[in-house]
Amino acid sequence: MGEAFVTTGIGSESMFYNPAGLSLMKKNFDINFNYTQWIADINYLSGGISWNLEEIGVIGIHLLTVDYGSINGTSLISVSEQNLYPLGYKDNGLVSNVGAYVVGLTYGRQITQEFSMGLTMKLAGQKLGQSTFGGSTEDNNASKIAFDAGVRYQTGFKHFTFGMFIRNFATNVKREEIEEQLPLLFSFGASINVMEIVTEEFSEDNQITFAADFLHQNNYSERVNFGLEYNFLGMVSLRGGYQTNRDLASWSAGLGLNTSLSDYDIEVNYSYSSFEFFTSVNRVSLIFSF
User: Fold this and answer.
1) Looking at the 3D structure of the chain, how many domains does it have?
2) Phi, psi angle pair for 235, to nearest 5°
3) How far apart are CA 43 and CA 30, in angstroms?
4) CATH number for the domain harbouring residue 178
5) Residue 141: CB partners within 8 Å, gap ≥ 6?
């Protein structure tokens, strides 16, 4: 759930970030559900399921939907209507059929014990309601096939791991007469177990992991995210992070609980992110492995 762990993370949630992490799934099946209460009444709901095929690799499918909340449509006015609408437009009421979605198929494989790679093919779409111009009504919809690709390498030193991925690689999307680019993102990240450096020993029940992500994207300048996770007893994780070069976002904190029931592993995660001028962001995820 930390912003700085997306590049080197593992498991079914990595389908939404670095697909190479999917190849390190430990159980036969993973099912995950994720909910994000974003700013400005925007909500994200996503989920995925992955299947471990052993030597062949791991495949997964995932779905993400975006609810933009209540949006009012407007239209321009004629010269004769200026007295009725002093703001220069008239309100047409709530716009229906507004939102976005992503449906993806991911394949990840561990090439060697240290090196893994992954690829995602997905359909991304956005619906912005309808517009009326010249007496005709048109749907403001757009969709595009895009690709994500990533690699992950775990060194033999203190569980030091680094990875990189590219997300939303695609051709331009044309909406009416305007061509738009998807938000292309390239990320390089690394993580290390601080506890191993301090104690010179590795313990599954007591780990402190430090991670950093370096992000380059086509619609903003470079960013760096930092994160720290303390895991004890193999069951409880305390997390904190900080995002640089952000207009509104800054620090975040979270908690993770992991337990086993019979042959099922259950993980619950929560994170809180502070946003200036807006209500804070809350994220919840639930993962079943069996």
Assistant:
1) 1
2) -125, -35
3) 23
4) 2.40.160.60
5) 125, 126, 127, 128
Rounded distance, CA 284 to CA 236, Å?
15
Q: What CA–CA distance (Å, rounded) separates 25 from 192?
A: 19
Domain of 92, in residue numbers:
3-289
Number of alpha carbons in the 13 Å side-chain half-sphere of residue 265: 16
Pair 239, 2: CB distance under 8 Å = yes
d(CA 46, CA 104) in angstroms, rounded, equals 11
**What is the chain's pLDDT, residue by residue, as a tens digit (290 residues)?**
456 677 777 878 889 889 999 999 989 999 999 999 999 899 999 999 999 999 999 999 999 999 998 888 887 777 777 778 877 788 878 888 889 999 999 999 999 999 999 999 999 999 888 776 666 777 788 899 999 999 999 998 888 999 999 999 999 987 777 788 899 999 999 999 998 888 777 777 788 999 999 999 998 899 999 999 999 888 999 999 999 998 888 999 999 999 998 889 999 999 999 988 888 899 999 999 99
